[in-house]
Amino acid sequence: MENEVLVEESAVKSAKKVIVTVAIIVGIVTIIAGIAFAVYKYLTPDYLDDFDEFDDDFDDDFFDDDDEIAEDVKPEVTAEA
Known about the structure:
single chain
């Protein structure tokens, strides 16, 4: 009977070791992937920064939408009794 208990305890300990080993491997892979992603983001040039400094006042001179809207809208004429 003691042998059966020892075998069961040994199986449980073995299962726990496998679970801990798998968790450690997953953690290490996650850390390596995170470091690789951080290095990639750091070394990749950001092309969108070139467009942030662009001044878009050129289009404003030719397209005054506010004036066109004001010309298209006519006031309603009400008939007074």
